[in-house]
């Protein structure tokens, strides 16, 4: 597999899931299933089988298309459905799930994002362009074994998004946060997206930046643990892996605090080049660009994505530290 393979998929929800599963099967069986993160999630799922049953049943009821995609994903991966469901509920089961990330928010101009995840998945992720039957196409960064929608991407012709993990604690989940974010790709505007996040927020924590095509609006949304807090952005900002406005209790790691502080400092200095921020490795703090094998959160930057929002919006995906895109396109 190339460092970031680009693939096209199309069809019904089940068919989309099958195709994603087939693409990620080798990486999941050869790499991911042997990682301690996978094993910790599966152990947690076995200990909390009633929680997994509730999350699965509610997904099937509230998001039947997402449920079908999960079923197809399990078939394509050649894994038991319960294991795949558990992995896609990892942030609802464990506040310490290794899904990091940093987002750079320049309202009216661009949305940029470092996708930070398990170091073992470097070179095994995908940039997927999907044409769901009867719906608008979307493009997204995808992990092997995971639904689209919880990373960074675009719904063609409508809006772009970037997602950061929030380590909210004291969560009693009723719906998987990754199922909610997958459903966002089926709505046509950010008002509908916010409404969805307000309705289904009893889950693990996520932060989303939603940006309209053409640059009209950019909204920062922190949701999970029963609350949704949208904030309209009018000035440049950054967001790492802890809530800035959400009232819930959370775990704040040093990496998240350092990345937030460093990003804000760079913006205050007038830096507006998104790659300059996303690829920063200042020595006085834990870096924004995360490449160390001993990262304290067990996360590395797997890709940087820059999405422009003007009249001819584009996306470009960069491998860590590189200044020439490995994949790019229009939306």
Automatic annotation (TrEMBL):
UniProt-listed Gene3D superfamilies: 1.10.10.2120, Penicillin V Acylase, Chain A (3.60.60.10)
Molecular functions (GO terms): acyltransferase activity
Keywords attached to this entry: Acyltransferase, Transferase
Key word Mitochondrion present: no
Residue ranges annotated for the Peptidase C45 hydrolase domain, each copy included: 109-316
Nucleotidyltransferase found in the keyword field: no
InterPro entries listed in its UniProt record: C45_proenzyme-like, Peptidase_C45, Peptidase_C45_hydrolase
Descriptive protein name: C45 family autoproteolytic acyltransferase/hydrolase
Taxonomic source organism: Vreelandella vilamensis
């Amino acid at each position: 597999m190339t460092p970031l393979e680009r693939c096209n998929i199309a069809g019904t929800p089940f068919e989309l899931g099958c195709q994603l599963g087939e693409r990620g099967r080798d990486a999941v069986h050869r790499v991911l299933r042997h990682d301690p993160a996978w094993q910790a999630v599966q152990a947690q799922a076995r200990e909390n089988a009633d929680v997994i049953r509730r999350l699965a049943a509610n997904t099937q009821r509230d998001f039947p298309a997402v449920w079908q995609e999960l079923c197809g994903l399990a078939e394509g991966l050649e894994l038991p459905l319960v294991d795949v469901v558990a992995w896609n509920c990892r942030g609802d089961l464990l506040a310490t799930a290794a899904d990091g990330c940093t987002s750079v928010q320049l309202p009216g101009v661009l949305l940029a994002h470092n996708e930070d995840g398990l170091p073992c998945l470097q070179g095994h992720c995908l940039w997927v362009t999907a044409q769901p039957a009867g719906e608008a196409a979307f493009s997204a960064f995808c992990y092997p074994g995971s639904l689209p929608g919880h990373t960074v991407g675009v719904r063609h012709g409508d809006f772009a998004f970037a997602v950061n993990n929030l380590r909210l604690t004291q969560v009693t989940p009723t719906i998987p946060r990754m199922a909610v974010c997958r459903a966002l790709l089926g709505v046509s505007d950010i008002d509908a997206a916010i409404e969805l996040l307000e309705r289904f927020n009893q889950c693990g924590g996520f932060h989303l930046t939603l940006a309209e095509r053409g640059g009209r609006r950019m909204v920062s949304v922190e949701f999970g643990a029963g609350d949704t807090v949208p904030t309209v952005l009018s000035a440049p900002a950054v967001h790492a892996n802890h809530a800035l406005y959400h009232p819930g209790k959370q775990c704040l790691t040093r990496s998240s605090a350092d990345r937030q502080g460093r990003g804000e400092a760079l913006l205050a200095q007038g830096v507006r080049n998104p790659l300059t921020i996303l690829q920063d490795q200042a020595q006085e703090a834990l870096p924004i660009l995360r490449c160390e094998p001993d990262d304290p959160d067990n996360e590395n930057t797997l890709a940087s994505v820059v999405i422009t929002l003007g009249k001819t919006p584009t996306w470009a995906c960069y491998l860590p530290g590189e200044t020439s895109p490995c994949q790019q396109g229009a939306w």
